[in-house]
Amino acid sequence: MLSKQLVAASLQPIVLTILSRGEAYGYEIMQRALDLSNGQLVWTAGTLYPLMHRLEAKGLISSAWHPSESGPRRKYYRITSKGQTVLEADKKEWINVHAILMNLWGPELAIA
Amino acid sequence: MMFNLETAISTWKNALKHNRAFLPEDIEELEGHIRDHVHSACEAGLSEEEGYRRALKEIGDLMGLETEYKKVFWSKVLTRTGAVKEIILEVKMLINYLKIAFRNLLRYKGYTSINIIGLAAGIACFIVIGLFVKDELSYDRHNEHADSIVRVLYGEKQIYTPTAVAPEFSRRFPEVVSATRIFPIGMFNSITVRKDEKLFEESGFISADSTLFDVFTLQIVAGQPENALNRPQTIAISRTAALKYFNRIDPIGETLNVSGSTDFEVTAVFEDLPSTSHVHFSFVTSFVSYPRWSEREIWDRSNFFTYLRLQDARSMEPLQNKIDAMVAQLSASDPNLASEQFFFTLQRLTDIRLKFEGRERYVFMFSAIGLLILLVACANYINLATARASRRAREVGIRKVSGAHRGHLMRQFFGESMLMVLIASILAVVLVFISIGPLNAVSGKEIALSLWNLKFWGLIVGLGVIMAGLSGVYPAIMLSSYQPATVLKSASGRGTGSSKFRNVLVVFQFVVTVFLLVGTFVVKGQLSLMQDRDFGFEKDHVVVLSMNDAAMRSNYESIKSVLQSQPYVQAVSAIQSTPGYQFSGYGMETEESDLTEQVPGGGQLVNGITIDDDVVNVLGLHLIAGSNFPDDPSYTPSDGQYRYLVNEQLVRSLNWDPDEAVGKKINLTSGRVGEIFGVYQDYHYQSLHNEINAQALFIDPSQFRNLMIKLRPDQGSGSLTASMASLQKIWKDVAPQKPFSFKFLDDEFDALYKADVQISEVISVFSVLAVLIACLGFIGLASFTAERKTKEIGVRKVMGATVGQIYLLMTKDLVLLVGIAFAIATPFAWYFLNKWLENFSFRLELTVWTFLTAGLVVLLIAVITVSYQALRASYLDPVKSLRYE
User: Fold this and answer.
1) What are phi and psi of B516, to 5 degrees?
2) CATH of A4-111, one of 1.10.10.10, 2.40.37.10, 3.90.79.10, 3.20.20.150
């Protein structure tokens, strides 16, 4: 399990990355994150949905209701071009941080 | 019971439906989330019920969810179409609060009116007092250089300075930018001013150096201020004076006749001085018109006010040091000047009214009263609002159960306070506008109020916010804190008691009431002490007319005999200045010192006034030794032949016996050697603020300025008008050059206490108002207490309690509170009033009775206000009060 702060900090880039590969609805995003991280990224609806709404209010993603094959309609989220730009910036920041830590620790320590 | 997913989900949805943190589509999204969760759980082989439970667990508790959703609520709403709807909702809520507030105001009319009247009166008092204080603080501030203008005092207190001060200081000290001398010609004896048929006695008459306009800021209406007063026989007049004599505001080049002798040319017209100027004048003659003063720079006679304008406010200290050094030098070079009294003190212009004239303590007094009134009004509101809490408790309970948050309730109750204060403020403004006229009349001020004064409205709004804050916060916190379970359970809907805090407030109100009452008693007592005191002379039925005129002085004896022959005249005399206004001072030598000493300034300082031989009769002075002057109309004084009457204090200061004094010789500087004819009992020749010092009266017709006519007091009603008409007729014959403008001696003397009387009136008015406001609160509080105790009283009556016992039960707490308040208020009042009384030379003794009376009055007021409610409660039929139990 990752720490709370790290989860919170990584939420935005992870969500944006998942959406950059195609539109998805809330539960789907959560499951993908869980799968990708081998069960390490545990989000709750209480953190995910408000975040989605905030990103939408900022204009990084957009949403639309589509009917589902089973049961009621679902709210799908899709990344906007502004979201793409922010994602690129986020990516650079994370890689930078990663690179700094790698330099500090050296290859052996990083692996160990 | 079988688990049904649909039922479970719809129950869950219902819980969220009315929660405004969630928009409808948020709930739909969350529902989908749960369904997906359950679906995948089922696929993994779990039951629907287990899946649902896991889904809920993952979503987390509702509170956490709500908190998270709330954070994004507004940003979400604003980017969507829901924004308008949400705002409408908020406004609707606000309207609902207002509606409830208004309903509550209307439903409890008694409560509402008590509160609004109390608050309005409190706010109105505070505003009026604020205006008074502002008026006092703005004295002399109209001068552009107010901060760098100083007045020179001779010694520490004497406002009259020698002619040499202004020219010498401005030549010698670079700090002095400009200096002006003012001779207050008309201050004690009015001056006759004439323009053709227009003939008036003027008292706002001064003479000043041409630099007057440079030191003080006078708005010029016409003429050139720079050279208005640099020639002899020129005069600058106020706008009002210009209109009065010339019917126009620019009579430049016209002339005014002064004292029936000299014509002065009008060279400038200035705007009337504001009422907030410590010195008032409408006529300024040029100082160079009087070569006797202007051409001689002397140090040893003090008749002039000296004002200096300095480079800046900070130059005063260094200048004072330089002046001290100069005085030391002067004293060393001229032994005649050297004296303990020969030094000069600089005084800031802005200190004159507040410090020198002692208004600072009144400003403090007024501010304190204003603040106290405001706090009493706030205490009233808090008391009533919390006492009423029992009635609102159930409303609070219902609102909370229906989903209202504490914040909502606080907003609601605070809103009610705001509404109350708003209504009260509007009422207060109306009250202020209505009362400012009468209050100006009582206080002698000229406070003008304009509806368009932004500062005024700013003050009102600020005050309203402060009042609402002071009085609204505590009830809002208290009322919103009720737990629904507690307040809804009990049938009576009684709120939790906060009577302790309420008692503290009530004690506070009583303390203020006792304090203000004692203050009012003492101020009033001191004044009546001053007014009822034996002044040592008879001031009734004496008409005073100005005879400050050379022709009148030379004809005095014949005028006197004409007047004396009138049947309504008892006695006629001439005097330099009337009692209350006798200021001229002399140095005195006696036989024991050196009678022939010709150097002025030596010897003992005495007050000296010239009179004729009938003053003793007119003023009814009591001679305790010797006799009055002999009737000798042909007598004129000459050195060695002066005739004196002296007061007891003078005799005492020389360690003489009154009888021993008669026949002794004294010399008033200089060259006035003469014999003491009689000794009279001390009378108050100046205001009662001043002590009685040594005084000598002597005959010198050349200095007569006032004619005093004592009328026969034993005439029928209406005769005064006839006498005055007759006097006027005679006056036209004997003094056609003088207007017949008379004064009465008692009015003139009483005018000395006008400021004190006005202040005491104003203090009384506000004290009574404060007491009334506090009473309003007691009435309201008593009615609520009675209401809450209705059942207790019913039970007690059933158990056999008498009306008397119940009455006692209702009032004993109050008596205790008054007692506590009395104990707290007494030392404060004692301290402050003693401080105030120190300003009077004849002062009221503070006795225990003053305080006990105030305490008893407050107790009486409290008991009377509570009695009605208490009696009503004790007479109530238990059958009725216990009906619902």
Assistant:
1) -65, -35
2) 1.10.10.10
